[in-house]
Design a protein that fits this description.
Blueprint: H1 2-6, H2 10-32, H3 39-76, E1 77-78, H4 82-88, H5 97-108, H6 113-122, H7 138-163, H8 167-174, H9 179-190, H10 192-208, H11 211-216, H12 221-230, H13 235-259, E2 278-279, H14 282-316, H15 324-352, H16 363-366, H17 374-400, H18 412-438, H19 441-448, H20 453-464, H21 466-482, H22 485-490, H23 498-507, H24 511-537
Parallel strand pairs: 1-2
C-alpha cells in the first residue's frame, strides 16, 4: 500500500484527501466526544434503525419486483406500446422523491381529488364515515418512493437482458417451458447481479432522502441526524449517528459485492441468436399494456399532473411568487458550477488514476462520496471548512485587526464542494468507461508523431471523449438541481434554490406555492431521462 501511494502525484493525493476529508472529519468529530449516555443511542437510534430497515426492506422488494418485471416485459414480449414503454419507464427518475411525496399527499389528502370523489359518490361528509388509507405512514413512504426509484432496477436489468443471448430462452421454449417457468428458472437467476446493483442504487437514494421521509413522518436515520444537529444543537451526536449510517451504507455495498463474488452470470451475447420477442395475443397484450401504463402513470403521471394543474391555477390567478426566479438562477449557476468541477476532476481522476492495463488504482477513494447521504456529507464538510474559516479569521485579526467572517462555510463554496464530493463518481465512471472503450492507441500515435501533450489533449483526447463528457456534465447538472439535503444545510443565509424553495413551502403545508419550482425541477430533469431512455431503446 505504501508503494502504491508513493506512485501517486501530489495533485492526485490532494484530490483523494479533499474527497475523503468530509468522512475523516466526521469520524474525528464523532470519536472525539464519543458517548453512549442519554437518550440519543438508547431511544432514538433503535427507532431510527428499525424504521430505516423497514423502509429499505419495503422499497427494496417493491423496486425489485416492478423494475425486473418491467424490464422483462419490454425485453421479451411484443405488445401494444412496447417501444414507448421501454423508454417511458425511465421517466419517474425525473421526479425527486421529495417532490413525488408532496404531490401524492396532495392527491390523497382529505381535500384531494380521490377523497373528494369518494364523498361525492357516497354522500359522506367526514373521514369517519368511510375508510381511507393514511398515506403519511411508513408504508405510504415506501410505495411512493418505490414508484420513482424502480427505474434504477429497470435500467440495470434492461441493459443486462439486451446483452444476453437468446439461445437459453429459445432452448427453454423448445423444451416446453412456458414464459413464467422460463422467467423463474432462467431469467431470474441470471439477472441476479443486475437486480442487486439496481436495488442497491435505489436504497442509496432512500438513505439520502430527507424531504420525503420528513413529510411522511418516518423517523429514518438521515432524518434523525438532521434533527439531532439542527433541532437539538448536538453536532457530535449527529456525527455519531452519521457514522452509524455510513456503516449501514458500507454494509449494503459489501453485501452487493459479496452476492456477486466468484460468480459469472453474464453469458456472452451470440450475434447469430439475438434475443427474440414473443408476440402476445391481443387480450394478454392489452393487459400488459395496462400494467405498464399504470406503473408509468403512478410514478410519473400523478405527480406531474398534480404539479401541472396546481401551477396553471396559480399562474392564472397571478399568484406566482417573484422569489422563484432568483432561486431558479441560483440553481442553474450552482448546478453548472458543480457539473464543471465534477467533469474537470472526473477527467483527471479517470486519466491519471487508471493504470495502463485498465485497472483502477486509488480512484475509488476519490469517488466514495456518492455513497454518503447529503445530510451526513454536510456535517463532514462544515467541520473542516469551519476550522479553516477560524484560521483565516485568526490570521486577519492578527495582521489587520479585523475578521472577514465565514468565507468558506458561509458561502456557495461549501455547496460546490458538497456537489463535487457527492457526484464526482458520476462523471468519473462515465469518462472512465469512454476512455477504456477508446483505448490509448490514438494518444500513443499522436505522441509518436511529435505532438505536444496540450495539442494531443485539445485535438485528440477531448474530441474523442466529447459524448462522454457531455453525458457526464448533463447527468451531474441534473443531480445537482435535484439535490436537497446538502444544499439545504450548507446554503448561505438568504440563498434559495428551487429544491430548498420547494422544501420550505411544503414544510409549511403550502404546496400550491411549491408547485411551480417543483415543476421546473422535473422539467429540467426530464431531458437526460428521455435521452437516456431513447438511447437504450435504440439498442433493442
Amino acid at each position: 500500500m505504501k508503494g502504491a501511494f508513493s506512485r501517486l502525484s501530489f495533485v492526485q493525493l490532494v484530490i483523494i484527501f479533499l474527497m475523503a476529508l468530509p468522512v475523516l472529519a466526521l469520524a474525528f468529530l464523532a470519536l472525539g466526544r464519543f458517548s453512549l449516555e442519554g437518550g440519543l443511542f438508547s431511544r432514538m437510534l433503535p427507532v431510527a434503525l428499525t424504521e430505516t430497515g423497514l423502509l429499505l426492506l419495503f422499497v427494496g422488494v417493491f423496486t425489485a419486483i416492478v423494475g425486473l418485471l418491467s424490464a422483462w416485459l419490454v425485453s421479451s414480449f411484443e405488445f401494444p406500446g412496447r417501444k414507448f414503454f421501454q423508454w417511458a419507464f425511465i421517466l419517474p427518475l425525473a421526479v425527486p422523491t421529495y417532490i413525488s411525496a408532496y404531490a401524492w399527499v396532495e392527491v390523497m389528502e382529505f381535500t384531494g381529488p380521490i377523497q373528494t370523489a369518494i364523498r361525492a359518490a357516497t354522500g359522506a361528509k367526514t373521514i369517519r364515515e368511510y375508510w381511507f388509507p393514511d398515506i403519511r405512514s411508513l408504508e405510504g413512504a415506501a410505495i411512493v418512493m418505490s414508484l420513482v426509484l424502480y427505474p434504477y432496477v429497470y435500467l440495470s436489468c434492461r441493459a443486462f437482458f439486451l446483452m444476453q443471448s437468446g439461445a437459453l430462452v429459445a432452448a427453454s421454449r423448445a423444451l416446453g417451458a412456458n414464459a413464467w417457468r422460463t422467467f423463474f428458472s432462467i431469467i431470474l437467476p441470471l439477472s441476479r447481479p443486475a437486480l442487486i446493483v439496481g436495488v442497491t442504487l435505489a436504497l442509496m437514494e432512500v438513505l439520502n432522502d430527507v424531504g420525503a421521509v420528513e413529510f411522511f413522518g418516518v423517523n429514518s436515520i438521515t432524518k434523525i441526524v438532521y434533527t439531532t444537529w439542527l433541532n437539538r444543537s448536538n453536532l457530535p451526536g449527529a456525527a455519531q449517528l452519521a457514522l452509524t449510517a455510513i456503516l449501514l451504507i458500507g454494509t449494503l455495498i459489501w453485501l452487493e459485492q459479496y452476492a456477486r463474488r466468484r460468480r459469472d452470470y453474464l453469458t456472452r451475447r451470440d450475434s447469430r441468436v439475438p434475443p427474440s420477442l414473443i408476440k402476445l395475443s391481443l387480450p394478454v397484450g392489452l393487459l400488459v399494456t395496462a400494467f405498464c401504463a399504470g406503473i408509468v402513470f403512478l410514478g410519473f403521471g400523478v405527480p406531474v399532473l398534480e404539479l401541472l394543474s396546481t401551477s396553471i391555477n396559480r399562474v392564472m390567478r397571478g399568484a406566482l411568487r417573484p422569489a422563484i426566479w432568483p432561486a431558479f438562477i441560483n440553481t442553474i449557476m450552482l448546478a453548472a458550477g458543480g457539473a464543471l468541477l465534477c467533469v474537470s476532476i472526473g477527467y483527471f481522476t479517470a486519466r491519471k488514476m487508471i493504470n495502463r492495463d485498465g485497472r483502477g488504482g486509488w480512484s475509488f477513494l476519490a469517488t466514495f462520496g456518492y455513497a454518503v447521504p447529503g445530510t451526513i456529507l454536510a456535517i463532514g464538510i462544515l467541520v473542516p471548512l469551519g476550522f479553516m474559516d477560524g484560521l483565516i479569521n485568526d490570521g486577519t485579526r492578527a495582521i489587520w485587526g479585523v475578521t472577514v467572517g465565514l468565507i468558506l462555510s458561509g458561502s456557495p463554496i461549501a455547496i460546490l464542494y458538497a456537489y463535487t464530493v457527492r457526484f464526482l463518481t458520476v462523471s468519473h465512471n462515465n469518462i472512465e468507461a469512454a476512455m477504456k472503450k477508446r483505448g490509448l492507441n490514438l494518444l500513443d500515435a499522436s505522441h509518436i508523431l511529435g505532438a505536444s501533450k496540450w495539442r494531443t489533449l485539445i485535438e485528440i483526447d477531448l474530441p474523442t471523449l466529447r459524448p462522454a463528457l457531455v453525458a457526464a456534465m448533463t447527468l451531474v447538472f441534473v443531480e445537482c438541481i435535484k439535490e436537497l439535503p446538502a444544499t439545504l444545510l450548507l446554503r448561505p443565509i438568504g440563498l434559495e434554490t428551487l429544491s430548498t424553495f420547494v422544501y420550505a413551502e411544503a414544510s409549511l403545508e403550502n404546496f400550491e406555492a411549491a408547485a411551480v419550482p417543483a415543476l421546473l425541477i422535473v422539467a429540467i430533469a426530464l431531458v437526460p431521462a428521455i435521452l437516456g431512455g431513447r438511447l437504450q431503446g435504440n439498442h433493442s
